[in-house]
Amino acid sequence: MSAAGTVSVGVPEAIAGPLQVGTGQRLRWAIEDSLVITRRNLVTWWRVPAYIVFTVVQPVMFTLLFRYVFGGAINVSDFPGGYVSYLIPGVIAQTAGFSSFSTAIGLSRELNVGGIDRIRSMPTARSAVLVGRLLADVLRLLLTILVMVGVGYAVGFRFQGGFGGAIAMVALALYLGLAVCCISAFIGLRVRDEESVQAFGLIWVFPLTFVSSAFVQVDSMPSWLQGFAQHQPFTEVIDALRVLAVGDKVQPLVGQSLGSALWQSLAWITGAIIVFVPLATRAYERA
User: Domain extents for the chain?
Assistant: First the structure.
């Protein structure tokens, strides 16, 4: 008790002063918040199963169309396993590219309905919205790829590069999907309008997926187009996916070894992530 008759109560230093939180604790909170946002997105899709169904229907449709309608007119007789072995890695890469639509549209919709504002008003890690969304989209892409592999087996596709090659092919496709989702996150947060986001997504994804080696050999294209088609990111990744899926015997057909194809693919994908993650983060901060 003091001379004035008041009681002096001791206050712990950690409470009396500014709250000190270690880096490890902040990281743990950020991971937990990101997982909560991931679960939120997954629950939304689980409650609307039609969304997942339509997500899977499109690549299945492309597979069946090119396998049974256009496949007979496309000559890849020198490719081990025939056209179906040539086709499935290309469709999987295209599916990873088209997975960007949900990221861009989902974030633009969250902005317009105030979902992001509500989350940011709570004591939540600022990175949780982006990380949770990307993680949820990658998990959804994994489900779609597994379905595509099953459909591929039903129409005659077989992994000839072994179990390790199959796992590596799926992992590389997911890495490609992550990079495309990072690009789309920036587009969705920057453009904001949902209809404009859908239109812009079609503008840049369609040319890259179709003007590539996904469905036809590059040397069948006009000479002025072959240079772009051969050296653009999707062709590099698709070539690596084919070598992983079918094995070393296709290396002369894709024009490069597995090591070269993987190095170039990983360089393209990692470069896109390095560029667009900061851009998406900045657009999120401004949203």
Answer: 24-286
Q: How far is CA 184 from CA 41, 130, 205, in A?
A: 17, 11, 10
Cα–Cα distances in angstroms (integers) from residue 285 to residues 117, 151, 193, 282, in the given order: 11, 41, 17, 5
Predicted local distance difference test score (pLDDT) of residue 40:
86
Count of CB atoms within 10 A of residue 150's CB? 11
- Distance separating alpha carbons of residues 252 and 116, to the nearest angstrom: 49
* Residues in Cβ contact with 154 at an 8 Å cutoff, skipping those fewer than 6 apart: none
Q: Is 48 helix (H, G, I), strand (E, B) or coil?
A: coil
* pLDDT over 60 at 11, yes or no: no
User: 132: closest CA among 165, 110, 148?
Assistant: 110
49, two tokens: 């199963």
CB contact at 8 A, 33 and 128: yes
d(CA 244, CA 261): 10
User: In one letter, which amino acid is 13?
Assistant: E
Question: What residue type is assigned to position 202 of the chain?
Answer: L
pLDDT tens track for 132-176: 899 999 999 999 999 999 999 999 999 987 888 899 999 999 999
- Secondary structure (3-state) at 134: helix
Nearest to 268 by CA among 236, 245, 244: 236
Structural contact between residues 229 and 213, judged by C-beta atoms closer than 8 angstroms: yes
What is the dihedral angle through the alpha carbons of 38, 40, 45, 48, rounded to the nearest 10 degrees?
Answer: 180
- The pLDDT tens digits for 52-106 are 777 788 889 989 998 898 877 787 777 787 889 899 999 999 999 887 778 888 8
Cβ–Cβ < 8 Å for 84, 67 = yes
